[in-house]
Amino acid sequence: MDVVERILVSKEQLDKQVEELGARISRDYEGQELVIIGVLKGGFIFLADLARKITIPVDLDFMSVSSYGNSSKSSGIVKIIKDVDTDITGKHVLIVEDIIDTGLTLNHLVELLKTRGPLSVKVCAALDKPSRRKVDLKVDYKGIEIPDEFVIGYGLDYAGKYRNIQEVCVLKREVYTKK
Ligand code: PRP
Ligand code: MN
Ligand code: MG
Question: Which residues form the Phosphoribosyltransferase domain (predicted)?
Answer without folding.
Answer: 13-158
